[in-house]
Amino acid sequence: MRQVKGLLLMDVDSTLIQEEGIDLLGARAGLGQQVAEITEAAMRGDLDFEAALRQRVALLKGLPQTIFEDIYPDLHLTPGAREMIAELKERGFKIGLVSGGFHETVDRLAEELNLDYVKANRLEVKEGLLTGRLLGDIVTKEVKKAMLEKWAQENELDLSQTVAVGDGANDLLMIQAAGVGIAFNAKPVVREQASYQIDVPDLTQVLTILDR
């Protein structure tokens, strides 16, 4: 086993993938605009993330669990994602996803990309239908930061050896705690407080920052 050289944690929606998964679910529920407006406000930091998430999940009540199979083909990796992941793996990094989205899609993305860690939210399902409620702890900004610290410690890494990439207010604590914190096509509140910014939809720019 070669020594782990670094850890990269990434947000999923509008970072690893181009879409907001919950907005796609909302559209299937016929409430696309309503859900998207709450998402936008939460990502700007205008709404409490947990309250906004519960509000949106409540709107999904009654959708079949199979909805995740239906929306998965509508998720598109951000350009450069595969190349960045392959290069960082070659450099001895471990890579994790920390998402305010849902395990049903995030686990599948992580498996497809052969990633090391996943933390996401769980939806309650009864008799094959979404109940409009969440199970367990919510992945808040505090949880994202805690995962960065936990997984760094597990790999005997200092936080200076970590990288965090995200776009929304829920990513801010993680971005500030990482050795290299990157605002990726981010909301103003994140751009203003991150050490590094990427303003093009290309994740290979992460490598450019690391190579400076």
TrEMBL record:
Specify the pathway.
Answer: Amino-acid biosynthesis; L-serine biosynthesis; L-serine from 3-phospho-D-glycerate: step 3/3
Q: Which reaction does it catalyse?
A: O-phospho-D-serine + H2O = D-serine + phosphate; O-phospho-L-serine + H2O = L-serine + phosphate
Classification via SUPFAM superfamilies: HAD-like
Q: Which InterPro entries match?
A: HAD-like_SerB, HAD-like_sf, HAD_sf, PSP
In the record, which residues are listed under signal peptide?
Answer: none
Q: Which EC number(s) does UniProt give?
A: 3.1.3.3
Q: What class of enzyme is it?
A: hydrolase
Q: Which cofactor does it need?
A: Mg(2+)
Give the record's keywords alphabetically. Amino-acid biosynthesis, Hydrolase, Magnesium, Metal-binding, Serine biosynthesis
Similarity annotation:
Belongs to the HAD-like hydrolase superfamily. SerB family.
Which PANTHER family does its entry note?
PHOSPHOSERINE PHOSPHATASE
Protein name per its UniProtKB record: phosphoserine phosphatase
Q: Which organism is it from?
A: Streptococcus oricebi
Report which gene this protein is encoded by: serB
